[in-house]
Design goal:
By secondary structure, the chain is of the alpha/beta class. It is built from 10 helices and 9 strands. The protein is 50% helix and 11% strand. The longest helix has 114 residues.
Length: 364
């Protein structure tokens, strides 16, 4: 028995050692699981801390973005106010300069009438010396009245193509002299203002229309000015040459706006089929030489240009023969600033500007 127990003792010891190993392993597993649980809790807390931090950071970023957007909007508002103030200042300065120029010219007109021997001057000097402004843009009123003294007043009827809201070159004839006439303007707004302006002049008709070579004669006939017109002015800043070419009526005095940027010598006009949207300033109308050559073919002679370099005056060949014809080179005036007291010349290389944009110009 004892021998049998002695043989079993090593196995019992091995089993106890095995159980001890199992206990140690179980304890190690329990410690590992406890550590994992602790680490899990720590990870959870860390995640919660990160989430809280992210929310805080996100809130801070959002607040910063909102503040930056508010600052941008305020800066835009202030810049807008600054632009408005600068625009108003520039407008006020431009208006002041324009009226200073007008006053200066009016004073000069009085002095010319007071001291110059007007009865001894010959055309075109006698015409230009009479220049002054009542209703016209520059000093066309005085030149036109001087011409009418030579040509006679006829039936006192005018046509103004491109009248704007003011009535253009014929405004003085309507307001001050009681003439009847037709004002034609593209802008509905300008026509409404012209109608209000001439409301007391029952002989003045203002119509809104886009004048083309194809409709100009029909338009004039429709309103009773297809014939017997004394003064006709064309100022549409675009296809003036082609309107004149198509015109059937033969007024005794013709006033044409020329583009002085084309110079005195070249016979230049813009093409009739050229769209004008987006074209550079100054790309319009025709040169003085081009208009004069066309007017000559239609029975008119150039007699003078007013000093601002905008309008040319023509007489029908059978009217006032004592007023001699002048060449475009003699009559030409460069374009002058409307606000500069020293009559600064406006210089723009319209030929280069047209070439840069591949815009056509026609030699006629």
């Amino acid at each position: 028995m004892l021998r049998r127990l002695g043989r079993l003792l090593p196995g019992v010891r091995a089993a106890e050692a095995l159980r001890e190993d199992v206990r140690r392993l179980t304890a190690a597993v329990e410690r590992l699981e406890a550590l994992q649980r602790k680490q899990g809790e720590q990870v959870k807390k860390l995640r919660e801390m990160v989430a809280d931090s992210a929310d805080s950071a996100k809130a801070a970023i959002t607040a910063s973005e909102q503040s930056r957007e508010a600052s941008r909007l305020e800066a835009d508002r202030l810049r807008g106010q600054e632009r408005d103030l600068l625009t108003r200042f520039d407008d006020a300065r431009h208006t002041d300069a324009k009226w200073r120029k007008i006053f200066s010219h009016q004073l000069a007109a009085l002095l010319r009438h007071a001291v110059l021997p007007l009865d001894r001057l010959e055309p075109p000097h006698s015409l230009n010396a009479r220049r002054f402004r009542l209703r016209s843009q520059n000093e066309e009123d005085g030149v036109l009245l001087a011409l009418l003294e030579h040509a006679g007043w006829g039936g006192r009827r005018f046509v103004e193509i491109g009248s704007g809201k003011s009535g253009g070159n014929s405004a003085g004839l309507a307001h001050e002299c009681g003439w009847s006439g037709l004002l034609v303007e593209l802008s509905e707004r300008s026509v409404d203002l012209a109608r209000a302006k001439f409301a007391g002049q029952r002989g003045v008709t203002a119509v809104a229309a886009r004048v083309t070579p194809g409709n100009v004669n029909e338009l004039l006939e429709k309103h009773g000015y297809g014939s017997d017109v004394d003064v006709l002015s064309i100022d549409i800043d675009s296809y003036d040459y082609w309107i004149l070419e198509a015109l059937n009526v033969t007024p005794r005095i013709l006033i044409l706006e020329y583009n002085a940027l084309f110079g005195a010598e070249r016979r230049i006009t813009i093409p009739l089929d050229q769209p004008l949207d987006g074209t550079p300033k100054g790309y319009n109308g025709a040169s003085l030489a081009a208009l004069t050559a066309l007017a000559d073919r239609k029975g008119y002679r150039l007699v003078t240009c007013e000093n601002a370099g905008v309008n040319a005056f023509y007489l029908r060949h059978d009217v006032a023969p004592e007023v001699r014809e002048v060449t475009p080179a003699e009559a030409f005036k460069p374009l002058r600033s409307r606000v500069d007291l020293d009559d600064a010349e406006i210089k723009t290389d319209i030929y280069a500007a047209a070439a840069k944009r591949n815009l056509r110009l026609l030699d006629v």
